[in-house]
Design a protein that fits this description.
This protein is α/β, with parallel strands linked by helices and 708 residues long. 50% of the residues lie in helices and 9% in strands. The chain has a five-stranded parallel sheet with strand order 3-12-11-10-9. It has a five-stranded parallel sheet with strand order 4-5-6-7-8. It is globular. It starts with a helix and ends with a helix. 53% of the residues are buried. The mean pLDDT is 93.
C-alpha cells in the first residue's frame, strides 16, 4: 500500500519538483491550515471520530436515522407588503409542499413602531410584512391551522408584542398556547452585535428574554422560545469560527438566564434551537454544523444536564444572502444550491434557500418557487437522504470539524474570561472582531485573492433582464394606517389604557411581562403602544458606532491598488485645503450596517475624513448632520428598499438647508428602475453590491468633483 511519503514524491514530480505540502497548502480565514491531502494519520488522537448518529456528542447528527427516516423541514422565510399578500403566499407555499412557515417582519415592526409613526415612512411593508395589531396577525394566518403548522418568527426587538399577538391569534382560532409549535427567535444579544433591530438597552432586553423562557416553560410546552442566531453574524462578516463561537456563547448566556429564573436545565434546554448561515466555503460549512453539535454537547455537561435532549443542538440553516451577487445574478441559483447541499450534509433540521434575485430586490413568485424547488430536488432526486451522515469518516471533514471546534473553543474561552457574552458585548470585543473580519474579506475580494464569479472574475459582457418585484410602500402604509385607525376606534379604550398601564407598572417591577402583553394584545393594543409602554421604563438603546482602522492598510501594504487611491485623496486634499469629507449614513430602520462599516473603514484608510452617522436616522437628521459637519458628500447605504421614499426626502431636506452642493451617493440593493429614478432626482451615483471599495472611493471623488 502506498504511503504518504510515496504520495509526496509522486506529487513532487507533478509539480515540477516543488514540495506539495508547501506549494498546495493554504490557511483559511479562521486561521486553520488546509493541506492538499488528509489520511488516517490526521485523525489520530481525535475524540469522537468513531461516534454514531443519535448519540452524544452528536457530531454525526442528532437522530439515529436522520434524513433516511424523515427529511429536513423546508421552511422558507417570507413576508412582504400586506398581510393579505403574505397570507396568500403562505397558503400557496404550503399547498406546494412546504412543511412549515417562517415569518419575515418589516423593519417598522422589528423596531417597535406602528405604521403611522413618522420615523418609518420608508420602511412599512419593506423587507417583511407589517404587523400593527392582532387583527393583522389574524389575517396573516387566515386559513393556516396554527395547531398543526409549525411557525418560526424572526423577531427580537418587539418580541413581546409579536409573540403575544401570535398567541392571541391562535387563541381566536381555537388553538390554546399549549398546542402551538414553532419558534420565536428572541435572540437579542446578537442584535447588539450585528443586526441592530433592538429597542431597549441590554439589561431590560435580557429580562424580556428570561420572561419568555419562563412563560414558555409553563404555558407552551411544544414551543421553542428562543432560536440563537449565527446567521446574522456571518452576514455581517464573521468567520466560521467566530460565528460558531459567538453563537454558542450567546446560547450559554441564555442558559444562565433561564437558570437564574429557577428553571431546571432539563426543563428548557431541549427546546433551544440554533440558526446558522451557510456560505460558499463548502467543507468549512459542513464542518461548522458538526462542530457546533460537538461543542454544545460538551458545554451542556457543565450544567449537569441529565435529559438526552438537553445535549442536542437543533439547527435551522439559511443559505447566505451576502454571497448573492447583483452582477450576473443567475449564478446565484448555483451558489444557493451548493450552500443548501452543505447544510444538508452538515445535518440541519430545517432549511431556507434564498432566491437568486435577492441581491437586486425582493424575490418574485418565480424566483421564490425556484428557491423552494431547490430543496425539493435535493430531497427527492439526488439520493442524499438515503444515508445517514455520508461524510462521516472523511479524513478531511473529520479533521476540519475538530480543527474548527478548537478555534471556536479558544474564542469562547476568551469571552468567558471577559465575563460572559453580555460583558464582552459591552466591552466591544465581539463587534470589533466581526467588523475586522468583514473588512479583511472585502480586501481579499477586491484584490482578487478570493474569487466571486461574475464580480471580480469571469465577468459577463452584459447583464440579463431580471424581473424585479416592486412594492408601493406608500400604498401599503396607507392601508396599514387605515386598519390601525379602525382597530383603535372599535376597541374598548378603557381596557386598552388599563392593559398598557399594567405593562408599564410591571416593567418597573419584577412581574413576568408575557401574560400582560397577551392581555394588551387581546385589548387590541398595537405593537407600537406596547413597545412605548415598556420604553417609558426601559428607555430606547442608542449605540455608538465607529469604523475599524488599519485593515486595508495592512492587507494591501505596498500594493499599487492602495497607493493609487491614497495619492488621489492626497491630491484632493492639496487642491481643496482639506481631505474629502464624507458622511456615511443609514436612513430609516434598516440596521444592516456591514456595507456602511466596510466603506467607512476603507475610506478612513484611504485618507478620507469620515463621519459615520448614527443608525436609524431620518432624512432631516442626516441633512442637518451633513451641513453641520461641512461634508462634501453623503453616502447612503440602503439594503431594505427604503431608498425609494427616504433618499428623495434627503434631497429635499438638503435643498431646504441651501446645501444642494453636497453630493449624494447611494449604495446597496438598488433595482435598475430605482437607480434611474434616483439619478433623475439628483443622486450623483449609485454603487452596486460587489463594487470594490477602491472603485467606490473613485466614484465618490468623481461625484465631489462634479459638485465643485
Amino acid at each position: 500500500m502506498a504511503s504518504r511519503e510515496d504520495w509526496k514524491e509522486l506529487a513532487r514530480k507533478e509539480l515540477g519538483g516543488a514540495d506539495p505540502w508547501e506549494t498546495l497548502s493554504s490557511r483559511s480565514a479562521e486561521g486553520i491550515p488546509i493541506r492538499p491531502l488528509y489520511t488516517a494519520e490526521d485523525l489520530e488522537g481525535l475524540e469522537d471520530v468513531h461516534s454514531l448518529p443519535g448519540f452524544s456528542p452528536f457530531v454525526r447528527g442528532i437522530r439515529a436515522t436522520m434524513y433516511a427516516n424523515r427529511p429536513w423541514t423546508i421552511r422558507q422565510y417570507a413576508g412582504f407588503s400586506t398581510v393579505e399578500e403574505t397570507n396568500a403566499f403562505y397558503r400557496q407555499a404550503l399547498a406546494a409542499g412546504q412543511q412549515g412557515l417562517s415569518v419575515a417582519f418589516d423593519l417598522a415592526t422589528h423596531r417597535g413602531y406602528d405604521s403611522d409613526h413618522p420615523r418609518v415612512a420608508g420602511d412599512v411593508g419593506k423587507a417583511g410584512v407589517a404587523i400593527d395589531s392582532v387583527e393583522d396577525m389574524k389575517i396573516l394566518f387566515d386559513g393556516v391551522p396554527l395547531g398543526e403548522i409549525s411557525v418560526s418568527m424572526t423577531m427580537n426587538g418587539a418580541v413581546l408584542p409579536i409573540l403575544a399577538m401570535y398567541v392571541v391569534a391562535a387563541e381566536e382560532q381555537g388553538v390554546p398556547p399549549a398546542k402551538l409549535r414553532g419558534t420565536v427567535q428572541n435572540d437579542i444579544l446578537k442584535e447588539f452585535l450585528v443586526r441592530n433591530t433592538f429597542i431597549y438597552p441590554p439589561a431590560p432586553s435580557m429580562r424580556i428574554v428570561g420572561d419568555i423562557l419562563e412563560h414558555a416553560a409553563r404555558e407552551m410546552p411544544l414551543y421553542n422560545p428562543i432560536s440563537i442566531s449565527g446567521y446574522h453574524m456571518q452576514e455581517a462578516g464573521a468567520t466560521a469560527a467566530q460565528e460558531l463561537a459567538f453563537t454558542l456563547a450567546d446560547g450559554l448566556e441564555y442558559v444562565r438566564t433561564a437558570l437564574a429564573r429557577g428553571l431546571s436545565v432539563d426543563a428548557f434546554a431541549g427546546r433551544l434551537s440554533f440558526f446558522f448561515g451557510i456560505g460558499m466555503n463548502f467543507f468549512m460549512e459542513i464542518a461548522k454544523l458538526r462542530a457546533a453539535r460537538l461543542l454544545w454537547a460538551r458545554a451542556m455537561e457543565g450544567f449537569d444536564a441529565r435529559s438526552p435532549s438537553s445535549f442536542l443542538l437543533r439547527t435551522h440553516c439559511q443559505t447566505s444572502g451576502w454571497s448573492l451577487a447583483a452582477q450576473d445574478p443567475y449564478n446565484n441559483v448555483v451558489r444557493t444550491t451548493i450552500e443548501a447541499l452543505a447544510a444538508v450534509l452538515g445535518g440541519t433540521q430545517s432549511l431556507h434557500t434564498n432566491a437568486f434575485d435577492e441581491a437586486l430586490g425582493l424575490p418574485t413568485e418565480s424566483s421564490a418557487r425556484i428557491a423552494r424547488n431547490t430543496q425539493l430536488i435535493l430531497q427527492e432526486e439526488t439520493g442524499v437522504t438515503r444515508v445517514v451522515d455520508p461524510l462521516g469518516g472523511s479524513y478531511y471533514v473529520e479533521a476540519l470539524t475538530h480543527s474548527l471546534a478548537a478555534e471556536a473553543r479558544k474564542l469562547m474561552d476568551e469571552i468567558e474570561r471577559a465575563g460572559g457574552m453580555v460583558a464582552a458585548i459591552e466591552q466591544g470585543i465581539v463587534k470589533a472582531r466581526i467588523e475586522e473580519a468583514a473588512a479583511r474579506r472585502q480586501a481579499r475580494i477586491d484584490r482578487g485573492e478570493e474569487a466571486v464569479i461574475g464580480v471580480n472574475k469571469h465577468r459577463a459582457a452584459g447583464e440579463p433582464d431580471v424581473e424585479i418585484l416592486s412594492i408601493d410602500t406608500e400604498a401599503v402604509r396607507a392601508r396599514q394606517v387605515e386598519r390601525l385607525a379602525r382597530v383603535r376606534r372599535e376597541r374598548d379604550p378603557g381596557r386598552a389604557e388599563q392593559a398598557l398601564a399594567a405593562l408599564s407598572t410591571a416593567a418597573a417591577g419584577s412581574q413576568n411581562l408575557v401574560p400582560l402583553a397577551i392581555e394588551a394584545s387581546r385589548a387590541r393594543c398595537s405593537v407600537g403602544e406596547i413597545s412605548d409602554a415598556l420604553e417609558k421604563v426601559f428607555g430606547r438603546h442608542r449605540p455608538d458606532v465607529h469604523p475599524v482602522r488599519g485593515v486595508f492598510l495592512r492587507e494591501w501594504k505596498g500594493e499599487p491598488l492602495l497607493e493609487g487611491i491614497r495619492n488621489r485623496v492626497r491630491e484632493f486634499g492639496r487642491s481643496h485645503a482639506r481631505p474629502p469629507r464624507v458622511l456615511v449614513a443609514k436612513l430609516g430602520q434598516d440596521g444592516h450596517d456591514r456595507g456602511a462599516l466596510v466603506i467607512a473603514a476603507a475610506f478612513v484608510d484611504f485618507g478620507f475624513d469620515v463621519d459615520l452617522g448614527p443608525l436609524f436616522a431620518t432624512p432631516e437628521e442626516v441633512a442637518r448632520a451633513a451641513v453641520e459637519n461641512d461634508v462634501h458628500a453623503v453616502g447612503v447605504s440602503s439594503l431594505a428598499a427604503g431608498h425609494q421614499v427616504l433618499v428623495p426626502q434627503l434631497i429635499e431636506e438638503l435643498k431646504k438647508l441651501g446645501a444642494e452642493e453636497i453630493g449624494i451617493v447611494v449604495g446597496g440593493i438598488i433595482p435598475p428602475a430605482d437607480r434611474a429614478r434616483l439619478l433623475d432626482l439628483g443622486v450623483n451615483a449609485v454603487i452596486d453590491p460587489g463594487t470594490s471599495v477602491v472603485r467606490a472611493a473613485e466614484i465618490v471623488l468623481d461625484s465631489i468633483a462634479r459638485e465643485d
